[in-house]
C-alpha cells in the first residue's frame, strides 16, 4: 500500500482502498464512477441511488442496482412520476431494493420535479450548471471533501424545485459520480480520465 493509502492491484493499477478489494466496486470505479453523465434518465437514476445510499454503504446500493432498475421502470421519470399508492405498496414489498417509505416517496416526487424542470432546460443541464471553477486535488482519502459550496447551492436549488433527499453531502456524492468534480486521488490510475478535468490542476505540481 502506498503512503497515500492507495493500493496497487495485481494489474499494477493504483486504486483507493474502497475500490481495491470488492470486484463489484472495483469494476464500478474503473469503468463508471466519475465519468460524465449528461442525460436526464442517467442523472435521475444516480440522484435516486445516491439518495437511497444515505446511511448505507455504496456497495449495498450497487449490488441492488439491477433490482432498483427493475422496480423503478429503468428510472424513466415519466413512468415513475405516474406512480400511485399501489406502486408504493409494491415497492415497499420488494425485498430487492431498500424499502424506505420516505425515500420511495422522494423518488416519485423527484421524478415529477424532473419533468417540471424540462421547461427550464432539464435536470442534467440544471445539475451541471453547478460545476465549480476548480476541482479538488486530494492526495489521500482524508483530503476528499464531503460537500462544497456548489453542492450546498445545488441542494438548495433542487429543493426549491420540489426535489427531496438532496442534501449537500448527497449532492456532492452525485457530483463526484457523474463527473462534475474529480475527486480521484492524484495517484489513482483514473485521475483525469473523465475528460472534464485535467489530471493535475494548475495549483498542483507533479
Give an overview in words:
- By secondary structure, this protein is mostly helical.
- It has a single domain, classed as Hypothetical protein, domain 2 (Endonuclease III, domain 1, Orthogonal Bundle), CATH 1.10.340.
- The chain is built from 9 helices and 2 strands.
- It has helices at residues 23-31, 40-53, 58-71, 77-81, 85-92, 101-117, 123-128, 149-160, 168-177, and strands spanning 7-8, 14-15.
- A two-stranded antiparallel sheet has the order 1-2.
- Helix 2 crosses helix 3 and helix 8 packs across helix 9.
- The radius of gyration is 17 Å and the shape is globular.
Order of helices and strands: EEHHHHHHHHH
Q: Report the top-level CATH class.
A: Mainly Alpha
> In percent, how helical is the residue content?
40-55%
Please state roughly what percent of the residues sit in beta strands, choosing from under 5%, 5-15%, 15-25%, 25-35%, 35-45% or over 45%.
under 5%
Q: Write the CATH fold name.
A: Endonuclease III, domain 1
Mean pLDDT equals 94
Class inferred from helices and paired strands: mainly alpha
Total number of distinct structural domains: 1
The CATH architecture assignment turns out to be: Orthogonal Bundle
Uncertain ranges:
none
How many strand segments? Answer: 2
Protein name: DNA-3-methyladenine glycosylase I
Pfam family, one: Adenine_glyco
Organism: Nostocoides vanveenii
InterPro entries: Adenine_glyco (IPR005019), DNA-3mA_glycosylase (IPR052891), DNA_glycosylase (IPR011257)
